[in-house]
Specification:
four-stranded parallel beta sheet; TIM Barrel; globular; about 15% strand
């Protein structure tokens, strides 16, 4: 897939790299106003906005819990296989625009199961959307089934079993955990992680966004090899050392963290401390339409704030390839392509990207 050529800006140069994104939610990340309104019309619904401008007003929030309430409203437009296929393809279109070759999208069945959306409809939509992305957009789409933290323990285990049953057909590559962090520790669903691990499914979890360093440690105790967010780990120096020693990847979403008031401003974000501790980090957009972001925007923003430089940004993007749940042979090919493209960037500027 050829990257679109633009004037020589940082974003355009980073676009030439064949990238990976690991922290992007299907449900919120696809809810661009035009798609949300189209799905709402298809399902006979009325949303609290009518166009992009009113959606921007609606997509304003001051806490994670308020954001989740807004998300549940827009996610109500996802009801059929076609709805899910369109949402997956919209993510593929956005990925192609940024030269993202492989992405792992979180799918939280708990957001729709309570209102009776059949699991088979979700799976059919994932299969079709994945096919469209590969055939039409040159993007390899995989899915991580996230457990809604608030689910009853037996229902959460059922979701794990459903995910395992559709694993090969739908391109499910991992099990995760999201939604309200405060009050719902990962440990209450430890049996779900154990069942997935026994079946050979890699594990990750949202933690340390709204629950402090203790939430990150709790997720580690469940056997995860990646942490989504993890930015509050800086509260505990021993935890930082453990994350670095174990090389646990943190999939960090800086602009989301600022929008959700995890940090008052980007200048106060913990990213520099995480990098200084030697923890592998990659950048991500979380729910891009709700945070007016994308992967390239995240890169440019943190460079402007912290002066990371192109070589460091390339290294963060490379981390996403290395720590992805992609099949080893496909990962090796993509990593070789990435390193070749990074070398070309270095040759152009005389930099060593390592």
């Amino acid at each position: 897939m050829e990257a679109t050529r633009h004037p020589d800006t940082l974003a355009a140069r980073l676009q030439t790299l064949p990238k990976v994104e690991l922290h992007n939610h299907l449900e919120g990340g696809a809810m661009y106003p035009d798609l949300a309104l189209r799905l709402a019309a298809r399902n006979g619904m009325t949303l609290p906005f009518q166009d992009a401008a009113s959606a921007a007003d609606y997509y304003r929030f001051t806490s994670l819990d308020q954001f989740i309430d807004i998300l549940r409203t827009t996610v109500a437009t996802l009801n059929t296989a076609e709805d899910y296929a369109d949402a997956v393809e919209r993510q593929g279109i956005e990925a192609r625009r940024q030269n993202i070759r492989y992405h792992e999208l979180f799918v939280t069945y708990g957001l729709v199961s309570r209102r009776g959306v059949p699991w088979e409809a979700v799976v059919e939509g994932l299969v079709e959307g994945r096919r469209r992305n590969a055939d039409r957009h040159g993007v390899d789409t995989a899915f991580i089934i996230d457990l809604d933290r608030t689910l009853p323990a037996d229902e959460a285990l059922r979701h794990v079993q459903l995910a395992l049953g559709a694993r090969e057909r739908a391109g499910i590559v991992g099990l995760g955990l999201d939604c309200q962090e405060a009050g719902f520790p990962a440990g209450r669903l430890r049996h779900c992680f154990a069942a997935a691990a026994e079946a050979g499914l890699p594990l990750t979890a949202h933690a340390g966004e709204d629950g402090g360093a203790a939430s990150v440690r709790d997720a580690l105790d469940c056997g995860v090899t990646r942490i989504d967010h993890g930015v509050q780990a800086v509260e505990d120096p021993s935890l930082l050392a453990e994350l670095a020693e174990r090389q646990v990847l943190l999939t960090v979403c800086p602009l989301s963290n600022v929008a959700l008031r995890v940090f008052p401003s980007l200048a106060e974000h913990s990213l520099p401390q995480l990098l200084a501790a030697g923890i592998p980090v990659c950048l991500n957009s979380d729910d891009p339409p709700m945070f007016a972001s994308d992967l390239l925007t995240e890169c440019v923003a943190v460079d402007a704030q912290f002066g990371l430089g192109e070589a460091r940004l390339v290294a963060l993007l490379r981390n996403a390839v290395v720590h992805s749940f992609q099949a080893p042979d496909a990962k090796a090919r993509l990593l070789a392509d990435f390193d070749a493209a990074a070398a070309r960037l270095g040759d152009e500027h005389g930099d060593d990207h390592g």
